Amino acid sequence: MSLETLPVHLNDIEAAAQLLNGITEYTPMAHSRALSQQIGSEVYLKCENLQRSGSFKARGAYVRMAKLTDEEKARGVVAASAGNHAQGVALAASKLGIKARIYMPLGAALPKITATRDHGAEVELHGETVDEALTEAKKYAQETGAVFVHPFDNEDIIAGQGTIGLEILEQVPDVDTIITGVGGGGLLAGIAAAVRAKEAELGKKIRIIGVQAEHAAAYPPSLAADALVPLKKVSTIADGIAVGRPGQLPFSIIKELVDDVATVSEDDIARALIFLMERNKLVVEPAGSVSVAALMNGKLLKDYGNLGNVVCVLSGGNIDPMLMLKVIQRGLSAAGRFMTIRMMLSDRPGELALISKVIADNDANVTGVDHTRVGGSLSMGDVSITIDMETKGEEHCRQVIRALEAEGFRPIVVQG
Q1: How far, CA to CA in Å, does 385 sit from each of 304, 399, 407?
Q2: Lower Cβ count inside 10 Å, N or C end of the chain?
Q3: Is 57 in the active site?
Q4: How far is Cα 202 from Cα 194, in angstroms, rounded to an integer?
């Protein structure tokens, strides 16, 4: 398929950029020295986590809604989202003077609900999943005539997200590889359409790679089958890309223009989120960190070798503080910097003191102890103890375990 026959063209994306001028941010491009050293080539971070409303979604939502007729605007809009699309639609509606109704699942993060309402949108909580909220939003559109704003399966949405591709080429004209997360596919499709249309002018081929969470990865099987393959179950901390079925329009673009869609584990995502926070001072939500996770786990380097100058898109920064606490702990554990062990010991004086000494002598720091004498699995005279500790990496964790085993204890690693 040629670029001319795709549903979104360069002139659509350039027109979207004009519409967005003064509305959304031309987000910064940060160089990551730490990531560059890690992979052996220059790495840049496209900071859509610093975009208005906290993610790239405001771009597509505004372009879609700005092109509505006056009659459509008067009917209002309706959308469904767990957070980022909700905030993007709410922001666009406030800018355009359109009434917006957003359906969000009951488990949506409170900060995202609050931010959506703060933009003036009416929020209705419905269903346990985004799919259930989506069904209700479409029902409302049918009953009231409100315009349904799809999060990714629309040409104007894709064109709006594609403006990121134009900015990347302006900010890093010698880019060799672009990596971004993908859920329904609007962002990846938009960037790919923009970049491929500019390659002749640049005189080079740019590698474009999408990334999905491994338990929410509908694109790899769909691309293999050359047809949409919905997932039966989606489970990931990266709620921003937890989409069980690719969009038809994005899929038609991605299958033609994108080089690869890789997957990352939950631990990969957590490690990347902490890395970005510690080394680049950037707060990024799990879905926004998957591009960096794909670099850090080494699979892309193994598959492609030298990636050249890399741009990772940090697609959003809307993370619930409670989720951040959990992700940080998981990320520290995955990096060997936090470990929880459980073991049985005899209920006699000095046992706990010996354990504490062994841990201290091996330069680990105890942060929590749970000491239990009563339980269905405990024999008379036995004690179950669970210890949380700060460690300094995977080898240090193994060192602490070996030291405890040398004293006759049998620690089981619960986390770490």
Answers
A1: 46, 19, 16
A2: N
A3: yes
A4: 12
φ, ψ at 378 (rounded to 5°)? -95, 135
Element housing 17 (H / E): helix 10-20
- DSSP sequence for 284-313: --GGGGHHHHHHHTSHHHHHHS---SEEEE
Token pair belonging to 250? 């994005």
C-alpha separations of 262 from 23, 43, 57, 202, 297 in Å: 33, 18, 22, 26, 11
pTM higher than 0.85: yes
Q: Tokens 């210890």 — which residue? A: 387
Residue 81 annotated as catalytic: no
Q: Which residues lie below 8 Å from residue 188, measured CB to CB, with a gap of 6+?
A: 180, 181, 182, 208, 210, 250, 254, 258, 261
How many other β-carbons are positioned within 10 Å of the β-carbon of residue 154? 22
Catalytic residue among 57, 95, 112, 255: 57
Q: Which of 26, 75, 56 is nearest to 291 (CA)?
A: 56
Instruction: For residues 378 and 104, give the distance between their C-alpha atoms in angstroms, rounded to a whole number.
Output: 45
**How far is 134 from 128, CA to CA, in rounded Å?**
11
Instruction: Tell me the per-residue pLDDT of 263-320, one tens digit each, with 9 for 90 and over.
Output: 999 999 999 999 999 999 999 999 999 999 999 999 999 999 899 999 999 999 999 8
Q: Which of 81, 222, 252, 315 is catalytic?
A: 315
Nearest-angstrom CA–CA distance, 238 and 214: 10
Q: How far apart are CA 84 and CA 234, in angstroms?
A: 18
Return the exposure string of 68-77: e unless at least 16 CB atoms fall within 10 Å of the residue's CB, then b.
beeeebebbb
Which residues are paired to 276 by β-bridges? none
Distance, in Å, from the CA atom of 221 to the CA atom of 171, rounded to the nearest integer, reads 34
For the chain, percent helix, then strand, then coil, each to nearest 5? 50, 20, 30
CB-based contacts of 71, cutoff 8 Å, min separation 6 = none
Beta bridge mates, 124: 103
How far from chain centre, in Å, is Cα 364?
32
pLDDT digits (tens, 9 = 90+) for 85-133: 999 999 999 999 999 999 998 888 888 899 999 999 999 999 887 778 8
Amino acid at 344: M
